[in-house]
Design goal:
about 60% helix; single chain; 5 strands; about 400 residues
Length: about 400
């Protein structure tokens, strides 16, 4: 069995059991030392054994009253010396008491205890040196030995405090990691929510318009109705595919679904035109590749803007422009809806949709900006500028 296991088992014992074991060990060693009677010095007598009993009894309370125990055991040790009974292990009870004062106290208490104990030990050595042929050794050395258990206790206590501080830091670091993980989860959920909103809002709006066209043309123009319903089915399949790709991030650590690209705008425009809104698309992004996050953001902005046209505008034509210069990508969607009328009453609270909010959040997320508002003479414009330099791809 290793020392670490023994130490762990000892720490697991109740404190009173540990104290009794310490008293027993100290008692055996000190009793053996007291029983040794060197010729020429006072032999063990009743006072010797009485002081031993008092010292051992005091050690039982060393955790609850460490400072009084030091004075009791120290007085017993001084009593042996002044009485003329010498022994190398007779100071063992006071050594244990001094160690306890340091390990369970603080630096200030250790310092004061060391000063007083060293002073008293030196004074006893001087007294005994005149009366008993100096069996205790030099006064300077006698002043040093009480400092040894105090220093050892100080080292042990400091190490325990450091270990406790390290454990507290580790706990705080773990809490910080959990908070950061929770924050990332919230961000990912918000991103997934935006993706789902973009997919459903655009596709369902287009499908609703196409279904209306099919219903109106069912009797008069069956071919137009059939074409509209075909587009409804294609839009539904595309929505299911995009939803699966988006929701896959909830099942896996990383999403392997490709982000939407600007070369998919033709399909997006075709779906809107099938609902009766003509769309003119101008795309001039140059030959250099754009960062993937910028392309995905631009695609989603166009998608959301066209969805708003289908849902909230009576426009018959929409112009989509995606152009690039040296440092930015400009996305502009302008419809020819009727002029905005001043409201007769305060506008209804926001809450019908999150389209424009989502557009702004997407642009800001890549370091860009968005402006939008009515166009003089009729219509509505959405314009986003997205930086293409310094954006992670």
């Amino acid at each position: 069995m290793t020392f670490e296991r023994l130490a762990a088992r000892a720490r697991a014992l109740p404190p009173i059991v540990v104290d009794l074991v310490v008293v027993a060990v100290v008692g055996v060693l000190t009793t053996a030392e007291a029983a040794v009677n060197e010729p020429g010095y006072r032999q063990a007598d009743a006072l010797t054994w009485a002081l031993l009993v008092v010292s051992l009894a005091a050690l039982v309370c060393r955790r609850r009253r460490p400072v009084p125990v030091v004075w009791v055991t120290g007085a017993a040790c001084a009593g042996w010396a002044l009485h003329g009974h010498i022994g190398e292990l007779l100071n063992l009870p006071v050594i244990v008491a001094l160690y306890t004062v340091a390990v369970l106290g603080d630096r200030r208490r250790t310092l004061w205890t060391g000063v007083i104990a060293a002073t008293l030990s030196g004074a006893v050595a001087l007294k005994v040196g005149r009366d008993v042929v100096n069996p205790q050794g030099l006064p300077v050395l006698e002043m040093v030995w009480p400092l040894v258990p105090l220093l050892l206790g100080e080292v042990v206590r400091t190490r325990r405090e450091l270990l406790a501080e390290y454990a507290a830091r580790a706990a705080r670091a773990e809490e910080d990691r959990e908070r950061e993980a929770a924050r990332r989860v919230r961000q990912e959920r918000a991103r997934v929510a935006r993706e789902i909103h973009d997919i459903l809002a655009h596709t369902v709006s287009a499908m609703t318009v196409q279904a209306g066209v099919a219903l109106d043309a069912l009797d008069a123009a069956p071919e137009v109705s059939r074409q509209a319903m075909t587009q409804v089915r294609a839009s539904g399949k595309e929505a299911v595919r995009e939803l699966r790709a988006t929701l896959s991030v909830l099942r896996a650590a990383e999403s392997t679904a490709p982000a939407p690209r600007l070369d998919q705008l033709d399909e997006l425009v075709a779906g809107v035109e099938a609902g009766g809104v003509r769309v003119s698309l101008r795309r001039d992004t140059g030959d250099a590749a754009l960062p993937a996050v910028v392309e995905a953001t631009a695609y989603r902005i166009v998608q959301e803007a066209l969805t708003n046209v289908v849902k909230h505008s009576a426009a018959r034509h929409t112009a989509v422009s995606v152009t690039r210069d040296a440092t930015r990508l400009t996305v502009e969607v302008v419809d020819d809806g009727p002029p905005a009328q001043p409201p007769a009453a305060p506008p209804a609270p926001a809450g019908r949709g999150f389209g424009l909010i989502g557009i702004r959040e997407r642009a800001v997320a890549v370091g860009g900006g968005v402006t939008y508002g009515p166009v003089p003479g009729g219509g509505f414009r959405v314009r986003a500028e997205l930086p293409t330099e310094g954006t992670a791809s």
